[in-house]
Amino acid sequence: MNAPGQKSIGKRASVAELAARVGGLVEGDGTVEIMGMASLEDAGDGQISFLADLKQISRLERTRASALIVPSALPSFPKPLIRTPNPYAAYAKVQTFFAEKEFEPLGVDPRAYVAPGAQIGRDVSIYPFVYIGKEARIGDRVVLFPGVYVGEEAQIGEGTILYPNVAVMDRCRIGKRGIVHGGTVIGSDGFGFAPDKDRYIKIPQVGIVEIEDDVEIGANCAIDRAAMGRTWIRKGVKTDNLVQIGHNVVVGENTVLVAQVGIAGSTEIGNWVALGGQVGVAGHIKIGDRVRVGGQAGVAQDVKPGEVVSGCPAFPHREWLRAQVVFPKLPEIKKNLSALEKRVEELEKILGSRENPKDER
C-alpha cells in the first residue's frame, strides 16, 4: 500500500527476473521485458498476466499479454511462461513488485495536532487534521491520513498505514506493517451492561486492543476493547470491511474474516481459520485451528480443529449440503406425509374392523 507523496519509478523486469521473485520455472524466452501487469483480457505488449485455474484455459486464446504466469500442469503455450504450483500467490508477488513505489516521507503537517509527550518516529507522513494524544508513540515510516485519531498512550508500529478517519483509542496498540482502512474504530467500548431492576448499568471497559504485526483491517470495522485485559488480534490476520470483533476476543494467526462477520465477546478463534461473509459467532466458545465456516452460518458452540461447517446453527458442511437439497422439497414432502398419515389412519380403521367384527345374529 502506498500513500500520496510516493513517486512511481517506472519499474521493469525480465520474465526470468520475475520468475526468480516467485520461485517459478521459465518456459520460453526469459529475456522478454515486462513493464506491468493486467488481466488476460486487458493485457497488451510489455505486460504479464496470469491464469490460476486450468478450467479457464480457454481465456488464454485471445490474450495479448507478452508473458503469462500459469499452473505447472498447463500444456505448452506459445508465449513466455512462468510455471508455478500457486499462480495466484505468484500474481500477488509480481503485482506487488510493480505497484510498490519509492517511499517519500512528508513529515508532520503543521495542521496536525501532536500532544505534549507524544513520540514521533523518523520518516513519517502525518497529514493535516490528524490528532495524536498525550504519550502516544508513532513508529518510523508510519503514514497517518487526514482525520486519523490516535488516543493517549496508544502505539502505532513502524511502517503502519492508517487511512482517513481511523480511530485508535487510548492505550490500544498496533504492530508493524499494519494497514487499517478508513472509518475503522479500534478500541471502542465493549458491549457490557449489567441489568439492575429497571435499568442497565454500564460495565467500564478498562482493557485494550492489541493488534500484532502484518495485520490488515478493512473499512468501517469495529474492534472493541476488552472489559479487562485485551482483545487480541494475532499476526497476519486479514479482515474485510464491516467486521465486528467483540471484547476479549482472540483471533489467531493468519485468520481471514470476510465482510460482515460478527464475533461476540470472549470467543477464541484459532490460527488459519476462514469465516465466510455474514458469519455470526456466539460468545465464550472456541473455534479450532484451520476451521472453515460457510457464509451466513451461525456458530453457537465449539468447533473442533480442521472442521468445515455451514448453516444456522452450524453443522458439518457435507451434511448441510445434503440438507440444502432437501429444503426446497419440504412443502411437497409435508404434503405427501400428510396424505400418507391419512391413508395409514384409514388402513388402521379397516384392519381394526376386521379384527373386531360385529356379532352376527
Q: In total, how many domains does the architecture comprise? A: 3
**Can you name the CATH architecture of the largest domain?**
3 Solenoid
CATH evolutionary superfamily of the largest domain: Hexapeptide repeat proteins
Number of helices: 4
**Averaged pLDDT:** 92
> Strand share of the residues?
25-35%
Strand order of the largest sheet: 9-12-15-18-21-26-29-32-35-38
- So what's the CATH class of the largest domain? Mainly Beta
Radius of gyration: 29 Å
Determine the CATH topology of the largest domain: UDP N-Acetylglucosamine Acyltransferase, domain 1
User: Terminal Cα separation, in Å?
Assistant: 101 Å
**Share in helix:** 10-25%
Structural class: alpha/beta
Helices, strands, pairings?
Elements: E1 13-14, H1 15-22, E2 25-27, E3 33-34, E4 36-37, E5 47-50, E6 67-71, E7 81-84, H2 87-99, E8 107-108, E9 113-114, E10 119-120, E11 125-126, E12 131-132, E13 137-138, E14 143-144, E15 149-150, E16 155-156, E17 161-162, E18 167-168, E19 173-174, E20 179-180, E21 185-188, E22 193-196, E23 199-202, E24 208-211, E25 216-217, E26 222-224, E27 230-233, E28 238-239, E29 244-245, E30 250-251, E31 256-257, E32 262-263, E33 268-269, E34 274-275, E35 280-281, E36 286-287, E37 292-293, E38 298-299, E39 308-310, E40 315-316, H3 317-326, H4 330-355
Parallel strand pairs: 4-5, 5-6, 6-7, 8-11, 9-12, 10-13, 11-14, 12-15, 13-16, 14-17, 15-18, 16-19, 17-20, 18-21, 19-24, 20-25, 21-26, 24-27, 26-29, 27-30, 28-31, 29-32, 30-33, 31-34, 32-35, 33-36, 34-37, 35-38, 37-39
Antiparallel strand pairs: 1-3, 2-7, 22-23, 39-40
